[in-house]
Design brief:
Structural class: alpha+beta
Radius of gyration: 22 Å
Strand content: 15-25%
Strand order of the largest sheet: 3-6-7-8-15-9-14-13-12-11-10
Distance between the termini: 61 Å
Shape: globular
Order of helices and strands: EHEHHEEEEHEHEEHHEHHEEEHEEHH
Largest sheet: 11 strands, mixed
Number of strands: 15
Number of helices: 12
Length: 419
């Protein structure tokens, strides 16, 4: 389905009025088939925080570098609410022809609906392509109208799915404060990621000292293996890489994805354009002589470091953990960042100091019967996820976790235990 820009003043005005928003002027909802159609400065002012993944520049880089393609299941359909011609609320929105690159998995829902004779695709997705990162999804600033405008955005997306005859609309990796914008017809779903939190550590050994003996010993052994390999490890800002270095980094990413049978959706042009976004991109590189033989790519913003991609042409014990986790922790401590999110999934992260946190999404399925069936399934899924999260916390790697658990607190390092 080809997305189409549309302005529907009377419909938008009635929906907004129903949500209780004072509307002395005509407020209109418009859908856009490219982020470039929306004003960059106004979009970024509505973010409310410095989350790099919903910045206009990041989303525009994805689109103009060939990462967002209809034949890969992505078509922009961004929504904006306007007061006259002034953008006052917006949301990143896409037609999806499949469920790849989302990280909130609904393949089972798609099969069930299609087996029942329905068409699950295309659907609508409110999220960021290829980025399982919690952040703002309903961009409406931070003032007295924010909550009302967020509800208007949710209603506009739901209305678009209903009017176009789509199966569903999904809002993935929502911030907790945004959940109230979605009424009871939107099904709630939660999952688990692993994040590292900076408790004011002075250096890596200070963090290491908070772990139990077994975990601390394992990390030291892994780092020693890399040190003994002879590879040179360096940390680089993306804006300091040459075009040749970016090409090499992308080649490692692409080859590693291909070797695992996965689709490398991010293009070489996207990687090189990351270097134009100031300090947004950060990299841990391993060199054998002058040749980059392994890399980990990170995105930073808002006091948070986000691990994104890894690639290597050598097999060195411990190298993946060194580049993807330990160098990221080193950098977060040195820069005083509050958190390091290394990416989706991976119980192995628990043993390396990353604790489980919950992620949240909302899903509107247009057909009431299908919605009820999925709601029932999600009730059982939620119980399983709750049990999984509790089990993970019971195996925290931090030295005082058992004491904290006895006191009814979430396990974690209470203080810097290093000398």
């Amino acid at each position: 389905m080809q997305p189409r820009p549309r302005e529907s003043g009377s419909e938008s005005e009635s929906r907004i009025r129903d949500k209780g928003i004072h509307n002395p002027l005509m407020l209109t909802t418009r859908f856009h088939d490219a982020i470039a159609e929306l004003p960059a400065a106004a979009w970024d002012a509505l973010r409310g925080e410095d989350n790099p993944f919903v910045s206009h520049a990041f989303l525009a880089t994805l689109e103009r570098s060939g990462c967002i393609r209809a034949d890969w299941g992505w078509q922009p359909h961004h929504v904006g609410i306007y007061e006259r011609d002034r953008l006052i609320a917006a949301a990143p929105l896409y037609f999806k022809g499949n469920s790849h690159g989302e990280f909130v998995f609904d393949f089972g829902w798609a099969r069930a609906w299609q087996q029942a004779g329905g068409e699950y695709y295309p659907k609508l997705l409110n999220g960021v392509p290829y980025s399982p990162v919690t952040g703002p999804r309903l961009l409406a600033g931070r003032d007295g109208q924010t909550a009302l405008l967020q509800r208007a955005l949710a209603e506009a997306m739901r209305g678009e799915a209903e009017e176009l005859g789509l199966s569903s609309v999904h809002a993935n990796f929502l911030e907790a404060a945004e959940a109230e914008a979605f009424d009871e017809d939107w099904l709630a779903r939660s999952d688990v990621q692993f994040h590292w939190h900076n408790h004011g550590y002075r250096h890596f050994p200070a963090f290491l000292a908070t772990l139990n003996h077994k975990k601390r010993k394992n990390i030291l052994r892994e780092r020693e293996q890399v040190a003994a390999s002879g590879l040179a490890i360096e940390w680089r800002g993306g804006n300091s890489l040459s075009l040749l270095e970016w090409r090499r980094v992308h080649a490692l990413y692409e080859a590693t994805f291909d070797a695992k049978g996965n689709h490398a959706a991010l293009t070489a042009a996207f990687f090189s354009h990351l270097g134009d976004l100031g300090q947004t991109a950060q990299l841990a590189l391993a060199r054998d002589g002058d040749t980059i033989v392994a890399m980990a790519l990170f995105i930073q913003g808002g006091g948070v470091l986000y691990g994104r991609y890894w690639g290597a042409s050598v097999d060195v014990p411990g190298l993946h953990f060194e580049l993807c986790y330990y160098r990221g922790i080193d950098y977060a401590i040195a820069q005083g960042l509050k958190r390091f999110e290394p990416g989706a999934q991976g119980e192995h992260k628990l043993a390396r100091g990353f604790l489980p946190v919950r992620t949240h999404s909302r899903h509107f399925l247009v057909n009431p019967g299908f919605r009820a069936a999925v709601a029932d399934a999600l009730t059982h899924e939620a119980e399983a996820v709750d049990g999984y999260a509790a089990e993970l916390l019971a195996h925290s790697p931090y030295a005082r976790s058992r004491e904290a658990a006895r006191e009814g607190n979430e396990p974690g390092p209470p203080r810097d235990l290093s000398p």
